[in-house]
Amino acid sequence: MSVTWQGVFPAATTQFRADQSIDIPATLAHLDAMIEAGIDGLIMLGTVGENCSLEAVEKRELLKAAVDHVAGRVPVLSGVAEYTTALACRFAADALRAGVDGLMVLPGMVYKSDTRETIAHFRAVAKATELPIMVYNNPVSYSVDLKPEAFVELADEPTLVAIKESSEDPRRITDLRNAVGDRYLLFCGVDDLVLESIILGATGWVSGLVNAFPRENRLLWDLAAAGRFEEAREVYRWYTPLLHLDTHPKLVQYIKLANAECGYGTETVRAPRLTLEGAEREQILGVIRKAIASRPKVEMSSAP
After folding, report:
1. pTM confidence score
2. What are the φ and ψ backbone dihedral angles of 137, each rounded to 5 degrees?
3. SS3 20
4. Crossing angle (nearest 10°) for helices 24-36 and 56-70
5. What CA–CA distances, in Å, run from 11 to 51, 145, 166, 242?
6. pLDDT in tens, 30-86
7. Do the Cβ atoms of 140 and 107 come closer than 8 Å?
């Protein structure tokens, strides 16, 4: 299936049982709920999907199950977050065999590569697969920053087709457009900057909170993409306290707690992450429950 690189792509959670084993049926049921709400694509094994907490065999099993279950209803991408370039190339091949439609590739994990090394990493992965690739730029979380001039240098790699921009600097959208024109499709990768990113020209949104609020998330995207900014601002103001949860080191725990409160699975995470407790848990629950109590009326027919 070819990937239409636009719209809302959830960074889907991976559901676990109480013993921290993967719960594939629960994960697939959650994917169904998001697809029914109108998402445009799926990204398995992103940060929110706890990629680096899964073993290689688990990743392959989960990807194959997701691809088979989704059955072409929307494109399925896989995150590629490995410690070395060789492992990333190998996993890209595994993902192709699992039947995914594209990849979201991160720099090498743990080691903080410089620009030359990072460019070499992405070139190697691009040459190792025929799948289209979204380059995931997240210097805040991974301390590796690919600036616009790096994307100019990478523009000759045909499989690099999109950028997930997560620098938390919306000026990057304009800087990238000025540097590379329309060479790459640009995705917002920071939930609480999505409206700003759409206005500046982002064509897609890799979202975390969509896992818990898929219909409201879709409404915000549709309103903003249609230029109905007054209505979009109202939804965005309601949504923003939740979207702030996506920018915290514990975003996985926060989003999974929101999932559980909204009836989309459990809050179980895999160690070393632990489920929230005490005052922190009550604070985050307060944000989630306030949003649930005041959520906007979603009438999908009212948005184009």
Report:
1. 0.95
2. -105, 105
3. coil
4. 40
5. 11, 20, 13, 16
6. 999 999 999 999 999 999 999 999 999 999 999 999 999 999 999 999 999 999 999
7. no
- In this structure, are residues 294 and 288 in contact, taking their beta carbons and an 8 Å threshold? no
What does DSSP say about strands 42-44 and 133-137: parallel, antiparallel, or unpaired? unpaired
In whole angstroms, what is the distance from residue 132 CA to residue 136 CA? 13
Question: Distances in Å between the alpha carbon of 284 and those of 37, 217, 226, 260?
Answer: 24, 19, 32, 12
CATH of 7-302, one of 3.40.50.2300, 3.20.20.70, 3.30.565.10, 1.10.3380.30: 3.20.20.70
Q: Which stretches within the chain are classed as H helix? A: 24-36, 56-70, 85-98, 115-127, 139-142, 148-153, 171-180, 194-200, 214-225, 229-243, 251-261, 278-293
> In which residue are the tokens 């688990």 written?
58
Residue 16 in 3-state DSSP? strand
